[in-house]
UniProtKB/TrEMBL annotation:
Signal sequence bounds: none
Protein name: MFS transporter
Gene3D superfamilies: MFS general substrate transporter like domains
Family annotation (InterPro entries): MFS, MFS_dom, MFS_Efflux_Transporters, MFS_trans_sf
Primary location: membrane
Pfam families: MFS_1
Length: 402
């Protein structure tokens, strides 16, 4: 296949199939990353680990994905981006299937790290693909389809993985992810046209970004908030079952509720973020920390099932708004350096996931599940200080610290 991308109207059906396949690829990758959250106790038991030890899988995955995202910016232009995207999905499929053969923590971790490399490189590449596939007037729709896979993974991927784990075991869950990744790789092979490679980014471009105090503050706020969130979220399953008395069979239902609330948060952010970005992020952080703090103080006697679901919904919606808000703020603040600034943001985001999982596991051994959750809520509240120090950006850009 050696076709070129033609920006013509109407967009061929084959192109929309490719775009949909990219969205499903995003779904597969994010589901693979977050799947251990819904099966942590099962993984720990099967691999002879403590829950904090099993949480290291999330830590290592996040750090490797962050490194891969950064290094991908320097990838030579002569490497076919189409072949690379297909290869990354095949690597993800292979890593998931190898993970199902693992009977030790080291084997499972090694398989996951291969998937993390594919994860980071995928996100470094995917942002420039939609603009090559469709004309400008269709770009918003194409982008929403591709990145809709991320929201769908939070809404459906994690609870479905948890549900499959409860019915057939965690190996079956990873097998399903592997088959989905392989199917999307095949679809991309037949439908994705040849893609132009962006020019490699020079080191001085990155250096310039780190001299911008506003962007540095956004990076710092993102690192603190995401680390705190995943310090608690990684260990949500044992918190729900062991502390709040939720039956294991109901975990997937609560994860689905949290995912759906995150989708609602995305809708709210889309409606209000342009005019009220600073206030919306601050209120969302406050609500998320409040819900998280109540979960940390709760017990099976005091909290009925519906109330736990409501707290998870508030937490999920609030953090979804924060994710969208911080990324939007960055895009408005980066000027001509959007691509490298976004690559660094993706790296920091993934590194913060890993750091949060590691910190949560360490705190778990010292102060227990509830103490870890309360500490995470406190860090989120403190992170509001960084947000409140920033001057809200205009529609076309930000103005700095204020």
């Amino acid at each position: 296949m050696n076709e070129t991308v033609l920006h013509a109207n109407p967009v061929p059906a084959r192109t929309w199939i490719a775009i949909t396949a990219l969205g499903i690829s995003a779904f597969s990758i994010v589901t693979s990353e977050l799947a251990p959250v819904g099966m942590l106790s099962t993984l720990a038991k099967d691999l002879n680990q403590t829950e904090s030890g099993a949480g290291l899988v999330v830590t290592a995955y996040g750090w490797v994905a962050a490194l891969a995202a950064l290094l991908s910016g320097a990838m030579p232009a002569r490497i076919s981006r189409k072949a690379l995207l297909i290869g990354l999905m095949l690597i993800l499929a292979l890593s998931c299937i190898v993970a199902t053969w693992s009977h030790s923590m080291s084997g499972f971790m090694s398989a996951r790290m291969a998937g993390a490399l594919a994860h980071g490189a995928f996100w470094a590449l995917i942002g420039t693909v939609a603009a090559q596939l469709v004309p400008a007037e269709k770009l918003g729709l194409a982008t929403s389809v591709i990145f809709g896979g991320v929201s769908a993974a939070s809404v459906l991927g994690v609870p479905l993985s948890s549900l499959i784990t409860g019915i057939a075991g965690w190996r079956s869950a990873f097998t399903a992810i592997s088959l989905l990744a392989f199917a999307t790789a095949c679809t991309l092979f037949w439908t994705l046209p040849t893609l132009a490679a962006p020019q490699p980014l020079r080191l001085r471009v990155y250096c310039g970004i780190f001299k911008n105090p506003l962007i540095l503050s956004l990076y710092g706020a993102t690192a603190c908030i995401i680390s705190a969130h995943f310090a608690a979220f990684t260990y949500l399953e044992p918190l729900l079952t062991k502390t709040l008395g939720v039956p294991s069979a109901s975990i997937s239902c609560l994860l689905l509720m949290s995912g759906l609330s995150g989708l609602v948060g995305n809708i709210i952010a889309g409606k209000l973020i342009d005019r009220h970005i600073k206030g919306l992020i601050s209120i969302s952080l406050l609500l998320s920390a409040g819900a998280l703090g109540m979960l940390g103080k709760g017990n099976a006697v005091a909290f009925p099932f519906w109330f736990i679901g409501m707290l998870l919904a508030i937490w999920g919606a609030g953090m979804s708004i924060v994710f969208v808000g911080l990324q939007t703020w960055l895009l408005r603040s980066a000027g001509d350096a959007v691509q490298p600034a976004s690559a660094i943001y993706v790296a920091i985001f993934n590194a913060a996931i890993g750091t949060g999982a590691l910190a949560g596991g360490q705190m778990l051994a010292i102060i227990g599940l509830q103490g870890t959750v309360l500490l995470a809520a406190g860090v989120i509240i403190c992170s509001m200080t960084l947000v409140l120090m920033l001057k809200a950006p205009g529609i076309s850009g930000a103005e700095g610290l204020g």
